């Protein structure tokens, strides 16, 4: 075995392996998709912390957010055990509500703060026999923070939102731009 070959073998064997490739750059469409994911996951968390597991009915509940601020949830949720679904007609009003998500996929990472009101109407799947089908609307919502990994600054102020979730796909417009992501 040549000395060069032996040196290369020793260096490779002692290293942590090949350097992982850097994630691709995240353009405006990518950033908007991650921000929408962050918003949708914050809605889900707010629902779970305020209404999940409560009797069917109309509610007006305010909850502190994980990273500061608060969310007020007003509206109704009804359960359909046969279909394994929950019907919702809820308005979330966020006041500097912070939420963070750190995953292994670069496009699933964010640290955001939400302000404004978002209406959520439709069906939340509880069992595999149902499909989530939701309308998400807002005349004015603001999202600030960072998205992606490595983190990129993100800011969308006083934006309109008109989006739809069908199963694991979410698409629509935010700030007048087309936006989409898949869970």
Largest sheet: 8 strands, antiparallel
Give the class from helix and strand content and strand pairing.
alpha+beta
End-to-end span in angstroms?
51 Å
| Cα shape | globular
**Binned strand content:** over 45%
Spatial strand arrangement across the major sheet:
1-2-3-4-5-6-7-8
Low-confidence stretches: none
Overall pLDDT confidence: 90
Integer count of domains = 1
What share of residues is helical? Answer: 10-25%
Count of helix runs: 2
Helix-strand pattern = HHEEEEEEEE
Tell me how many strands there are: 8
Q: What's the Cα radius of gyration? A: 21 Å
Summarize the structure.
By secondary structure, this protein is an alpha+beta fold.
Pick out its properties.
single chain; 183 residues; alpha+beta; 2 helices; 8 strands
């Amino acid at each position: 075995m040549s000395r060069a070959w032996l040196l290369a073998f020793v260096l490779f064997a002692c290293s942590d392996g090949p350097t992982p490739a850097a994630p691709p750059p995240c353009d405006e469409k990518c950033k908007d998709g991650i921000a929408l994911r962050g918003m949708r996951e914050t809605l889900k968390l707010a629902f779970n912390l305020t209404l999940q597991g409560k009797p069917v009915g109309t509610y007006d509940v305010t909850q502190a957010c994980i990273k500061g601020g608060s969310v007020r949830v007003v509206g109704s949720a009804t359960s359909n055990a046969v279909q394994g679904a929950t019907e919702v007609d809820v308005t979330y009003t966020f006041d500097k509500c912070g939420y963070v998500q750190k995953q292994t996929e670069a496009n699933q990472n964010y640290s955001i703060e939400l302000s404004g009101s978002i209406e959520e109407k439709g069906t939340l799947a509880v069992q595999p026999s149902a499909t989530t089908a939701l309308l998400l609307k807002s005349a004015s919502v603001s999202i600030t923070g960072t998205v992606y990994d490595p983190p990129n600054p993100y800011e969308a102020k006083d934006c309109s939102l008109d989006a739809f979730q069908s199963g694991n796909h979410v698409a629509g417009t935010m700030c007048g731009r087309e936006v989409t992501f898949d869970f």
